[in-house]
Amino acid sequence: MQRRGALFGMPGGSGNRKMAAGDIGELLVPHMPTIRVPRSGDRVYKNECAFSYDSPNSEGGLYVCMNTFLAFGREHVERHFRKTGQSVYMYLKRHMREKVRGASGGALPKRRNSKIFLDLDTDDDLNSDDFEYEDEAKLVIFPDHYEIALPNIEELPALVTIACDAVLSSKSPYRKQDPDTWENELPVSKYANNLTQLDNGVRIPPSGWKCARCDLRENLWLNLTDGSVLCGKWFFDSSGGNGHALEHYRDLGYPLAVKLGTITPDGADVYSFQEEEPVLDPHLAKHLAHFGIDMLHMHGTENGLQDNDSKPRISEWEVIQETGTKLKPMYGPGYTGLKNLGNSCYLSSVMQAIFSIPEFQRAYVGNLPRIFDYSPLDPTQDFNTQMTKLGHGLLSGQYSKPPMKSELIEQVMKEEPKPQQNGISPRMFKAFVSRSHPEFSSNRQQDAQEFFLHLVNLVERNRIGSENPSDVFRFLVEERIQCCQTRKVRYTERVDYLMQLPVAMEAATNKDELIAYELTRREAEANRRPLPELVRAKIPFSACLQAFSEPENVDDFWSSALQAKSAGVKTSRFASFPEYLVVQIKKFTFGLDWVPKKFDVSIDMPDLLDINHLRARGLQPGEEELPDISPPVVIPDDSKDRLMNQLIDPSDIDESSVMQLAEMGFPLEACRKAVYFTGNMGAEVAFNWIIVHMEEPDFAEPLTMPGYGGAASAGASAGLDNQPPEETVALITSMGFHRNQALQALRATNSNLERALDWIFSHPEFEEDSDFVIEMENNANANIISEAKPEGPRVKDGSGMYELFAFISHMGTSTMSGHYVCHIKKEGRWVIYNDHKVCASERPPKDLGYMYFYRRIPS
């Protein structure tokens, strides 16, 4: 056994010291209750630290907790020991050495390497002619850092030996049986084989979809039983949908739905409402054909003329990746790449752009010590911890170090290619942010724009205190709808996070060239000759901006002035301008044959963007508003009974939904009322109730129901007036928090200890604002956090002048395939981030981007 000095290479270590088997057993006796054998379902993390990208290949190795099976690098293992008291860790280290050369200068003959016993997901070439590898494992006992070399079957207790063998032989937590995939495979739905499909004549067009119960045109799901097209799940940022697909299932019980826009020859995103998870449908092609969608024909159409399809794409791939130019690798802080996990480039490109924004850098990396210290016991399942870990990995420069001069000289002497940049692997981050998501949890390519909104949703839900870095993207859109018959108008506002620009194909400046190219291409196809050089449509940016601002027809518009449906037109303007403007070019659509198509266009995106002329002006003189009358609600007969019985006993209010809403910052009593009046249908539905009623004067008043004689109000008040249990207060203060913080947290969480601790960490502003808390403490009538009237969405309004600093480009025919690359302007020059490769850009293809990131120019 060794002491700490030997392990960390410190002077003064005691070196190796042999001990009898009884000594080792005696040393482990106090820790035996904490040593576990991994069970089925336990995730053993032996490849990557929970707080950093350290691995057994790192200089300091990796420590695996023998109780939780979480792994920690040298810098973070002490934190876990202090927080949990777990003392026994398995230290793993893979050593890499240059092979001994033979007399003739070549490497010695290959032989089986018995020194490799760790099953690691690494890029190591274990059969390399130049290097040999040796794995090391030992138990380390904290806090004295005693070491027990492994294997040590003779001296270790049987339980410890079994636990060590199980850890060493465990598979990656990101895979089960198939080594080529790192996500769990989706289950086959039990409803797929015998799915009933109604013969109702429904045929689904390739475009122009909208929800059958509302006007939403995104996040739409096709029910595979009756062909209904309905909007999907509601998200925190009020995007995503109104949950009508789920309501349809609850009404009729039709279990399976497929997301429109995800259908490719290889499959689609299918969700089972009954099983409450994404599933596989082995008969999906047959089920879609029932509604006129021919997946197999899509495959033939898309890939039938491979030469015709591939040549234009090769050009696009070369231009965007800057193929053929000598790109200089970049190293250091902010120049770390991300390994491609197999169609994960959409995630990598978005995260590179996100962490080039100072507000995100400060919110996560700037708060690293605090976030790590207050992380939950399993930091792999905490969004803020994993965001901070990823941000530090990208920005620290710790994982982007240039090769040593001696290595470069050796490479030149051997006439070998330059050493490759390694980058960091976002496996843990992707596994967390994509869990329970039907699209991002798959191993298929996804839409970078959809992932960006998904990430914003997660940032919103897991904000740190009062500051929210995603505020920099949020802006208000003013929508003006005019009844064409009465000329009356209605102004509404909604929140958005990106500006979607249509592609104005009719405004192409090289129409003659395009016509000539198309004729030549068809002639070449007919005669099986090589295709002509691609001619790409050149679209002025000003035309796309004009198309965005032009009025559009509103289908099925219900005029409150006429009390009937009428023709209506809608125009959109910016009610506020965000700090950072994200612009998406709407390049993707569907053809009549249901094949995804992409507008292969060149748009002269400006470096400096002025959209001040798109500022909303509100109700203008002479305009008359439409009456504030809602359209009649038609309730299906089979839903009336359910709605009539929706109200519940106030004592049965779902407190978990109440606390989810309270954690968003809404008054506690308002949250209780929202959950009550929506019949315990969940926090998402209750949130919509809050948005509708938050302007009412009694919004934050206690819940009172005449039918219950005020019991709800009395019960709520009694719970709030009671002083939190003193023993719980003492427990929190013993952890180092102020008494005022403990009281405040317990009152806000109904004296729930675990939620109170989470509340303290998520409200750091109360730690600083001690005078406010003391005043609350002395005020006998102060029951919870001040229930001031909630403000509207927080926006950072300002000038509409912007400067381009990043853009994401897509190569391929569809968002479901292809590849994403990100370009970011840093230190005055453009840099290309192509997965793990980070290089100085020579010719940034700003005209071929898909998403553009602009920062406001201070006025």
From TrEMBL:
<feature type="domain" description="UBA">
    <location>
        <begin position="723"/>
        <end position="763"/>
    </location>
</feature>
<keyword id="KW-0072">Autophagy</keyword>
<dbReference type="InterPro" id="IPR041432">
    <property type="entry name" value="UBP13_Znf-UBP_var"/>
</dbReference>
<keyword id="KW-0833">Ubl conjugation pathway</keyword>
<comment type="similarity">
    <text>Belongs to the peptidase C19 family.</text>
</comment>
<keyword id="KW-0788">Thiol protease</keyword>
<keyword id="KW-0677">Repeat</keyword>
<keyword id="KW-0963">Cytoplasm</keyword>
<dbReference type="GO" id="GO:0005737">
    <property type="term" value="C:cytoplasm"/>
</dbReference>
<keyword id="KW-0832">Ubl conjugation</keyword>
<feature type="domain" description="UBA">
    <location>
        <begin position="652"/>
        <end position="693"/>
    </location>
</feature>
<keyword id="KW-0378">Hydrolase</keyword>
<dbReference type="GO" id="GO:0016579">
    <property type="term" value="P:protein deubiquitination"/>
</dbReference>
<keyword id="KW-0645">Protease</keyword>
<dbReference type="GO" id="GO:0006508">
    <property type="term" value="P:proteolysis"/>
</dbReference>
<dbReference type="InterPro" id="IPR050185">
    <property type="entry name" value="Ub_carboxyl-term_hydrolase"/>
</dbReference>
<dbReference type="InterPro" id="IPR001394">
    <property type="entry name" value="Peptidase_C19_UCH"/>
</dbReference>
<dbReference type="GO" id="GO:0006914">
    <property type="term" value="P:autophagy"/>
</dbReference>
<comment type="subunit">
    <text>Interacts with UFD1. Interacts (via UBA domains) with SIAH2 (when ubiquitinated). Interacts with BAG6; the interaction is direct and may mediate UBL4A deubiquitination. Interacts (via UBA 2 domain) with AMFR; the interaction is direct. Interacts with UBL4A; may be indirect via BAG6. Interacts with NEDD4.</text>
</comment>
<dbReference type="InterPro" id="IPR018200">
    <property type="entry name" value="USP_CS"/>
</dbReference>
<feature type="binding site">
    <location>
        <position position="244"/>
    </location>
    <ligand>
        <name>Zn(2+)</name>
    </ligand>
</feature>
<dbReference type="InterPro" id="IPR001607">
    <property type="entry name" value="Znf_UBP"/>
</dbReference>
<dbReference type="GO" id="GO:0004843">
    <property type="term" value="F:cysteine-type deubiquitinase activity"/>
</dbReference>
<feature type="active site" description="Proton acceptor">
    <location>
        <position position="819"/>
    </location>
</feature>
<feature type="binding site">
    <location>
        <position position="214"/>
    </location>
    <ligand>
        <name>Zn(2+)</name>
    </ligand>
</feature>
<feature type="binding site">
    <location>
        <position position="211"/>
    </location>
    <ligand>
        <name>Zn(2+)</name>
    </ligand>
</feature>
<dbReference type="InterPro" id="IPR028889">
    <property type="entry name" value="USP"/>
</dbReference>
<dbReference type="Pfam" id="PF17807">
    <property type="entry name" value="zf-UBP_var"/>
</dbReference>
<dbReference type="GO" id="GO:0008270">
    <property type="term" value="F:zinc ion binding"/>
</dbReference>
<comment type="function">
    <text>Deubiquitinating enzyme that removes conjugated ubiquitin from specific proteins to regulate different cellular processes.</text>
</comment>
<dbReference type="InterPro" id="IPR016652">
    <property type="entry name" value="Ubiquitinyl_hydrolase"/>
</dbReference>
<feature type="domain" description="USP">
    <location>
        <begin position="336"/>
        <end position="857"/>
    </location>
</feature>
<dbReference type="Pfam" id="PF00627">
    <property type="entry name" value="UBA"/>
</dbReference>
<dbReference type="InterPro" id="IPR013083">
    <property type="entry name" value="Znf_RING/FYVE/PHD"/>
</dbReference>
<dbReference type="Pfam" id="PF02148">
    <property type="entry name" value="zf-UBP"/>
</dbReference>
<keyword id="KW-0862">Zinc</keyword>
<keyword id="KW-0863">Zinc-finger</keyword>
<keyword id="KW-0479">Metal-binding</keyword>
<feature type="domain" description="UBP-type">
    <location>
        <begin position="187"/>
        <end position="295"/>
    </location>
</feature>
<feature type="active site" description="Nucleophile">
    <location>
        <position position="345"/>
    </location>
</feature>
<feature type="binding site">
    <location>
        <position position="231"/>
    </location>
    <ligand>
        <name>Zn(2+)</name>
    </ligand>
</feature>
<dbReference type="InterPro" id="IPR009060">
    <property type="entry name" value="UBA-like_sf"/>
</dbReference>
